[in-house]
Structures are given as C-alpha cells and as structure tokens.
Amino acid sequence: MTKQIIRHTDGRVLYECVAETFREAVERAVGEEVSLEGANLRYANLRGAYLTAGGEMTTQTVPLITLRMLRGACSEQKRTFKAEWPGGAEATLENVLRAVELGLDLPWGTRWFTAEARAEYERRVASIQAEYERQEAPIRAEYDRQVAPIRAEYERREAPIWAERQRQEAILWLAAFLASQEGQE
C-alpha cells in the first residue's frame, strides 16, 4: 500500500489516501462522493473501476461505441475508427483521448448525448475554450509580433512575381476566350 494522491490539473490535491493503486484511490473518492471535477486522470487506467457514488459500489458495464454508430460520419473518420477499434471502442477516458490523438471529431459524437448532457457539455467546453483563448492570446500576439517583419519581407518580394503570374494567366485566359469565340459570330 502506498499513498495515492489525486490532483487537479492545476496541481492542487483533490483527494489522498493509502491504497494499492491509483484506480483504488479514485474508486474510494467516488464512493465518498468527493468531487473529482478537473482531476488529472489523463493516464489513469480506470477500466473495471467501481465508480458509483454513495452507498454500495456496483460494477457497471462500459458502453461500446461501434462503427454502426458512426453512420453519417465522413468516410475518413470511419476508416480511422475502424482501423483502431475494428470491434468497437469501450467508452473510456483512455479511448476518448486516443480518439483525440487520431483526429476523430469528438463534437460530431455529441449527437449521441441527451439534450441535457449536450447542453452541459457545451457549457463546460465553452468555459474550457475561453480559458484556452485567454492563455493563448499573449502567445499568439508574441508570435505575430515576431513574424510581422518576416511576413512583410515575404509580401514585398512575392508581390511582383504574383503580379507577373496573374498577367500571364490573363493573357492565356484572353487567348482561350478569343479562340472559343471564333466562328460564333
């Protein structure tokens, strides 16, 4: 048995206990109805964990996301899903994070949510997006500041060759148009 600590993504401690595994610590926290909102569970293996809050803990079947559920998705998304999970994917954090790595479109899957779950998801994602934009803004501003002189030099040097390309295309367009008009009078 070792001390297990469940931390928020910002580093603060949400729950700690002595347990054999991190999964056991998560099970205890859920059983004690400790809020794990914002918990850093990115690499946690929670497969088979007992995650029923309050009272007696029971095992729950993990829902399966199947290729059939992707009816209406684009063929590239279906191919990617099928290559990774030919028999379907259990709805686990590990698999959802893998879907993100593979570039699967999570918002497309919100069609499987109830109206209430979708509204809550969208509300919380909006909050996450706002925080991302707040943190990203100064990084973007610094990037733009550093790139501005390079962009200006590129545009200065590229403008005459673009103009020449456009002039040559105009000549070709006119020649093709006139050739198309011959004999139509």
Walk me through what this model shows.
The strands form two sheets. Strands 1-2 form a two-stranded antiparallel ribbon. A two-stranded antiparallel ribbon has the order 3-4. The protein has helices at residues 22-31, 75-84, 93-101, 115-181; strands spanning 2-7, 13-19, 64-65, 89-90. It has 185 residues and is mainly alpha-helical. The model is unreliable at 55-59 (pLDDT under 50). The chain folds into three domains: 1-60, no CATH class; 62-112, no CATH class; 132-185.
Helix tally equals: 4
Termini, distance in Å? 94 Å
Record the strand order, biggest sheet.
1-2
Largest sheet: 2 strands, antiparallel
Average pLDDT works out at: 88
Tally of distinct domains: 3
Radius of gyration: 27 Å
What is the chain-wise order of helices and strands? Answer: EEHEHEHH
Shape category: elongated
Structural category is: mainly alpha
- Helix content percent band: 40-55%
Report the uncertain regions.
55-59
Strand portion: 5-15%
Q: Tell me how many strands there are.
A: 4
